[in-house]
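User
Here is a favour to ask of a fellow structure person. I am asking you to supply a protein in sequence and structure-token form. Please set it down just below, with no commentary around it:

Assistant
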Amino acid sequence: MNRTARAARGVSRPSIFPFGDARLGSVTVIDTIEGVEHHREALEHLAENAAHPNPFYESWYLLPLLKASKSKQRLRFLLVHGTDDSGSEAPETLIGFFPFEQTLLHPLCPVRCLRPWQDAYRWTLRRTPLLRYGAVGNSLAALGRWLLARQHPPTIILFKDLPGDSEILRAAECWLTEDHRLCHVHDVRESHLYRRQTDAETYFARVLSGKRRRHLRRLRRLLEDLGPVRVADLDRSDDVDRLFDEFISLEFSQWKGKIGTSMASMPDGAAIAKDILKEAHRRKRLSLLTLRVGDRLVAARSAFLAPPGCFGFKMAYDESPPYARCGPGFLLDLEGIHRLHDDADLLGTGIEWLDSCAVKTAALPLSMRTEALLLHRYMVTARGGIGEIVTRRFPKVMQALPWRIRRLSAF
């Protein structure tokens, strides 16, 4: 099943899952970058047929960051091969990809766990596993059997960024409810979703008050007083190297550069970011919307296309006083929403929503979103022993500690 359609070794004991069969899947553990590269073609096919897209775990995005992070992490990437839930696929089909890294649950709690892999730059903005459409149940059933069969730590697995109202979340809830050999704890955090409405005016009427819309029109007039305003998306005829350099430099010049979190602030970050953007552009998966006053770039926003959705990556805007007071970031977001509904180059036909990939408190996506995006996370282990004790008590203990200690948690 392709993206458009998605938008519209065996086990001896029987599975107890009504939604999936552990006998129809086997788990392979990869702990080297070379191992991931060996399965690159299968991973790309899986991403094209995923139940829920996640460009940040696709090979073209993951491998450059994986190579930059290789000396700092213990990789435990799990590949699940098997058939789909109906049994119609070949048993050697890749139906699940769970990129994990082995780490401590917390520096003060020396219990090992597997958590979703995160790159050294923190650019892996969503850590939803790639699971084949129609085979989510078998993927999770096989993973559960693998976890129960382990004789050595780590015996705790963490799942993050399972989107609300998705096939993955529903299957995970069923799996963890029905398999009484496992115990888990559950938590939810919030991000922001831009969902297409019937037209742009309906969208704005839903998310913006009349007063707010008048204020944004006033900001647009103030910006036009500084020079001719032009909004454009990346075109095949553009000098992409120059444009990417401008974008990276603009981000470095703002507050992200001052606190050391911009692309150019990281060791080799600018070069790696540029390679990723160029590869996304080559695959026709990149939107880079820019706002210029004259020839000056004053705002830019990048996103990766993954039908039926789109995922925000990096955004930058000019913080010098004449431009910052005009709210160029908000004005660029307005244009992006127009293009979402006009099927222009920003998102294109078949894109129904944009995941901002922003934190709950981010001002711009909070003001423009149509709805909260609920992202679920789970801590899962086998019943009995130290794993269950830690799993049940760890979140409550963390809640009682100061934020500076809590933030070191792997969960």
Summary: Confidence is low (pLDDT under 50) at residues 3-19. Residues 210-225 form the longest helix (16 residues). The two ends are 33 Å apart (CA to CA).
